[in-house]
Amino acid sequence: LTIFRLERAEGAARRAGLSTQPIWRQLWDDVMKTRPPNSENITCWRKKFLETFFSNVLHGVLDVSSDWRLNDHHFSPLLHSSPHVSQLTLCNMLQGAVELTAEHNHKVLENLAGSLRILKFQHLLSSDQSIRRSLVLLLHRLIHHGSVSQVSMYSWPVPDTVLLVLILSMSAGFWRSGNALAYQCGLCREEDKAPRQELVQERAERGHDAGREGSDGENQKGLPGAPEEADAPLNSVLSVLRSSPLQNQPCEEASSEGPCDHTSTQGGSSPHCGSGQLSCRPVLRKTRRRIKPAVGRKRRCLRRSRGSHADPEDLYDFVFTVAREDNSGLPDKTSTTEGENTENWTGSSPGSPCTGHAGCRKRGGPAGIFSLKAAHRFRSVSTLELFSIPLTGETCRTLSNLLSSWVSLENLVLSYNGLDANICCILSGLRALSCQPHCRLRVLRVSDVFSHMPCVELVRCVLSALPQLHTLSVSFDLKNQLEGNRPEGNPSCSEVEIPESCLEQLEIRFPREPLHTTFLLPVLKASKSLQQLSLDSATLPCPRELGLLLEALKECTPNLKKLSFHDVNLAEHQKEVLLLLQDPVLQEITFSFCRLFESSTAEFLSEIINTVKRNSSLKSLKLPGNRLGNHRLVALADIFSEDSSSSLCQLDVSSNCIKPDGLLEFTKKLEGHIQQRGGQIQFTHLRLFQNWLDQDAETAQEALRRLKAVCSVVNDSWDSSQAFADYISVM
Fold this sequence. Notes:
It is a single chain. The chain is of the alpha/beta class. Among the domains are: 1-84, no CATH class; 86-175 and 377-441, Leucine-rich repeat, LRR (right-handed beta-alpha superhelix), CATH 3.80.10; 561-730, Leucine-rich repeat, LRR (right-handed beta-alpha superhelix). 37% of the residues lie in helices and 13% in strands. Helix 14 packs parallel to helix 15 (423-434) and helix 22 runs parallel beside helix 23. It comes from Oxyruncus cristatus (sharpbill).
């Protein structure tokens, strides 16, 4: 069957109770010729194939003429596969954006507006004006009038600042419509017609005389969605402004009672504004001379002449207006619905973004404001992820000001952005966001190479600014050398009071910093709802430190269900390890690369097994990277013996030097215990990644076959010899 025929038969097959999944899986193997990541988690191969097929055709990776099943004259590759695309990656020169906004792909873009949820950008390069214009139209359709809820950007070593901030601003729901030739957006025009028609109908019902109607007709030219002819006076003024060397300065009347509109000298547009509302968006310009606004326009999408283009200088000014917001433009109140955010900006308050502290210094004083006064905003995304994209101080100030009113944002991930001291600028914007009554931010993940301050200190700063967070992850590789002699207890954050928080999950990866329970204690006391705690790469400054931590956890976090230690040397803390395994509340414990058996005796392993056997609350035990070896793995099978009251469901023994013969012996012993218990066992998952199972393929296959009859086994085809060679090469 061709893809077209298979798609048409899908409904009939479902009604007949037949599955087409094997056919789609075979198509994947034949056409894609790769193993997809996490293939064991793929539930629908039809969707997986068509989504990948769409991306490959869009980027010119796949030639549909290469396989007869793809080459059907009834089948339009992009059109027919687009309804199945929930995530899409655009890369390099954004050729995909240009293709999708082309006139012949109008229906494809409409399909994506309904199906696409995740939009990713990867390895972007600088682009010219026409490509940016296509990108703006794409983002406007997919985010502002579509269903995209997540924007992620990856691997952009030297980002184009204008392009980067353009993506960030539109993801946040901002859009100065004139820059994007908004006359092409029929949805904006349709939304604007409704209030204008209602107003016209209301006036008609009042029974105005003809003279009054004529007067109203002139006044109507300033209403949202007015006919094209109404733009003629404004367009003529814009033409003069475009040709004039003079440029606007921020409007000084922005704080007055009367709302004002601002017209850019090069973009030729009034700011975006909602139906029946006026906007107040002063625009940064390069000279001191100020031109009064020509005509006040209450229009969301200004329709300019079709021959006009977005001026890159105007776009540049718009981008950096966001970064240089005046301290007087602060969010005061925000009301949010599904598709819009309404903000009232008032005078100075403590929750202002970018107040000029170290790491976030303003240059040359306030140069402009990007604020809204009773203004309407477009729909914005709920998840923003930035991976390996260096952020300059200017870009951080821009992002901070966007974050300060981004009330729809629920998840923020900043990974390897070289923030350093600029983390304070980001926190300033997040602090302002938390003051918004409809703030939805619940997940924050920050990771980088260098830490600007001790990890626990940063955690305290974040929680004091964002007590409503549910998940917080802080991760750093190295301690900043400039901060190497800095005392752990910096008064700026270590003495700040942490309000009672909603934190449920806390992850900290220390850059080989000592873990001081004294500094972590205020965080634990403020986090009564904490359910998951992960501590990575910490050092224990004294033998008693782990014991103090366990006491603090028992006292302050009664709801803790999951506890994880990674790369923390626990070789000399056997007593504390056993205490954790006895805990009647913990359901999941992870000791990952913790050198548990480095200096232990056989008695320690027996104590672990007996402790787990008596603990009926523990559901998951993860022991990767602890050099279990064959004999310790075989011993662990006794956890499931007939006299055990354990409820253990998951066991992770990845990276533990396990060989095929040891795995087979473990399997046989486990089978014996299951038989003694009459088949009643709760053990369901075994993880075996990166073990030495390739040393005897036949024995390994037999062990895996027998294990899979007992539980779900997750392993990989790991080349242990190559891994050993790699290890030797870096010694």
